[in-house]
Write a structure and sequence with these properties.
- This is Nitrate ABC transporter substrate-binding protein.
- InterPro entries: NMT1/THI5, SsuA/THI5.
- Residues 30-55 have a biased composition (Low complexity).
- This protein has helices at 9-30, 37-40, 76-83, 86-89, 105-110, 121-129, 174-182, 198-202, 215-221, 247-252, 254-285, 291-306, 309-312, 320-332; strands spanning 61-66, 92-97, 116-119, 134-141, 146-151, 166-169, 189-192, 207-211, 226-230, 240-246.
- By secondary structure, it is an alpha/beta fold.
- It folds into 2 domains: 61-143 and 238-344, D-Maltodextrin-Binding Protein, domain 2 (3-Layer(aba) Sandwich), CATH 3.40.190.10; 146-234, D-Maltodextrin-Binding Protein, domain 2 (3-Layer(aba) Sandwich).
- α1 runs parallel beside α6 and α11 packs antiparallel against α12 (291-306).
- The longest helix is centred in the C-terminal third of the chain and has 32 residues, at 254-285.
- The radius of gyration is 20 Å and the shape is globular.
Length: 354
Amino acid sequence: MTKKTLIPLLAIILIISVVLSACGKNNASNTPAVSSPSASSPEPSESAAPSTSAEPPKEEVEIKQILDWFPQTTHGGLYAASDKGFYKEAGLNVTIEPGGPQVSATQIVASGKAQFGITGGDVLLQAREEGIPIVAVAALLQDSPAALFFHKGENIKSFEDLNGRKVTALLFAAYWQYIKSAYKLDKVQELNYTGQFANFIADKKSVVQGYITSDVASFKAQGVDVDYLEVTSSGYRPYMSVIFTTEKYAKEHPDIVKAYVEATVKGWNYYKDNAPEINPTIVANNTSQTVEGLNAEAELMKKYVYEGDAAQHSVGYMSAERWNDTASKLYKVGVLKKEADVSKVFTSEFLPKP
């Protein structure tokens, strides 16, 4: 991941969060086609899934997928499904559109201009609290590769040790709000993250947010030895890169949603051992990256896509326990104003069975 793309998942959390309120408030009046949660919920359930694969639609269906950022390895399975014809086999003509700093997948999908979007699990919870009736249908990353980096040799063993230091992070991101509250970081000098590491490199006592999958190699290339605290080790573990659609679309077109999710998971299973074959397609859609860089990232990304619960169940797996844990933590630190009913937040009924 290059500097132009090194604000991926957590950056999009801030960007979408900034537009979220406006999106949610506008949605009720601008998107009458999207029904209310109570009126159209597909009644998400972990165990409601049929055991058979989806039958391809009789006529090819046009599908638009909005990404959460510019194309990168976190979208590898989608490009694999497209390149290898898995979407076509499922009767779908899928267009993958990049995200970006001015693109809100939540707003686009809620308005009906696209059928599927990608966002973080914590952002999806905030969107639903704002009244946007979207539902998660697959979690492409079981955990986030986000971390807080510090110079090697600094006496930082836990998050409490950040007190008294300069920390550069997305200050409004839910993960940072949680860590500040949970570890009582009331003596941190906070600086807002802009995607640049120059200040961090110059100040050996400082701390900065980044991604294990890309920034360790980037620091090493600049002659900077770093260590890090993984954000997941703080106890904050929302699902990341969550594919979502509207409750209305899931209820009215369950066969299409199932066909899309199954083909996407098939794409991810192919990407696992064939990323070098697919990555040139990603570079063709995001020329700021290199195939060599993406090949290295894809290896590091495997831990987050294929391990944990995904190893036992399936790529994309989600549990009520994890969703409840995230919702509870966001409520406790005030990011959510009320406790969420996660039975309406996600459904596993479209995921393939192991």
